[in-house]
Write a structure and sequence with these properties.
alpha/beta; 3 domains; LOG_family_nucleotidases
Length: 342
């Protein structure tokens, strides 16, 4: 039988509805129904066992990720990346301990990979009660550090891609200390996601060491990537480099000084704020960022749209709306920075 996501499957649809009812407590039942249909269609389409195992394990890992994080949905979280080989006596390790402790003292929670090095430093500074660890099964380096061992917020993944989703999806900010291939892979992926609008804007802070690890990286980016036109100058708004853990914390706090969150509704970009902007403020934004909205359109204050009713906890926030061209996500980061100055 050829299955459809539309309700044209007759007895199959009835059986799925009955199963959902018998399970009880199932939220958003229509979406769950589609997931069941997807699983059945995968079983029909694929006879290669390894592919079906990948699909099954992926869903299991993501389900468990949601279960662990969902009780803390309203806590602000910072993901920390860095080398697993950084030793506790090194300055970068101690700087990460101080950085994560500052954040925890302000009510933030920390997400790390759960292993040794910078990951352990982040968990040590924040304390296990304010930490998550999204670990990965590897033949070396990646056993859970002592601060997260047996912690209920420790998740161990089989697949890197699921782990990466957790790192970015659950974070309100990203901090990156010096590291190797894995650290650069994680950092560059965040760059790409922000630059292409595939994740919500968030502060990305590169916390340098005394040898200027990120300063040397910046020279390469400026000369070899910007110089050859592989990136645009506006992309430098995506990140901040600092050697100070206190300045790194300030960058994160300042990002949410007035900006709260955003959402796309049809072709409109809705930016939710902590305090309302005046018409004069909006006029300044229009003059300073003409490339950000489509020609002939205006930035306007708006009430919550009907499509936003599914986020009732955000309906009281003031917001502005614009016709965003989807070409300037780096500039959008600068735009948010300017909003935070009002």
């Amino acid at each position: 039988m050829q299955l459809s996501f539309n309700r044209t499957n007759k007895e199959i649809d009835e059986a799925i509805d009955s199963l959902i009812g018998k399970a009880g407590g199932v939220h958003h039942q229509e979406l769950v129904r589609e997931m069941i249909i997807s699983a059945l269609k995968a079983g029909q389409d694929t006879d290669y066992l390894a592919d079906l195992k990948l699909l099954s394990n992926t869903m299991k890992e993501m389900r468990y990720t949601n279960k662990v994080f969902s009780p803390y949905r309203h806590r602000t979280k910072v993901t920390i990346f860095g080398s697993a080989r950084t030793e506790p006596q090194e300055e970068a390790y101690q700087k990460c301990v101080r950085f994560s402790r500052l954040l925890a003292d302000k009510g933030y929670m920390i997400i790390t990979g759960g292993g040794p090095g910078i990951m352990q430093a982040g968990n040590e500074g924040a304390g296990s009660e304010s930490s998550f660890a999204v670990n990965i099964r590897l033949p070396f380096e990646q056993a859970p550090n002592p601060f997260m061992l047996a912690n209920p917020r420790l998740i161990t993944y089989k697949y890197f891609f699921n782990r990466k989703v957790a790192f970015v999806k659950e974070a309100d900010a990203i901090a990156v200390f010096p590291g190797g291939f894995g650290t650069l892979d994680e950092a560059m992926e965040v760059f790409t996601l922000i630059q292409t609008g595939k994740t919500s804007p968030k502060p990305l802070v590169l916390i340098d060491d005394d040898d200027g690890y990120w300063e040397q990286w910046f020279i390469f980016i400026k000369e070899r990537m910007l110089g050859r036109g592989f990136i645009s100058a506006e992309d430098f708004s995506i990140f901040t480099i600092t050697r100070s853990e206190k300045e790194a914390v300030k960058v994160i706090e300042d990002f949410y000084r007035n900006y709260h969150s955003l959402r796309f509704v049809n072709r409109r970009l809705i930016i939710r704020l902590n305090k309302e902007l005046s018409r004069a403020n909006i006029d300044e934004l229009e003059k300073e960022f003409p490339e950000l909205h489509n020609s002939g359109t205006k930035i306007i204050s708006t009430a919550p749209l009907q499509e936003e009713q599914d986020e009732p906890d955000l309906l009281d926030l003031p917001r502005i709306a614009l016709q965003f061209d989807h070409q300037h996500y780096g500039l959008l980061m600068a735009f948010i920075g300017r909003i935070n100055m009002f």
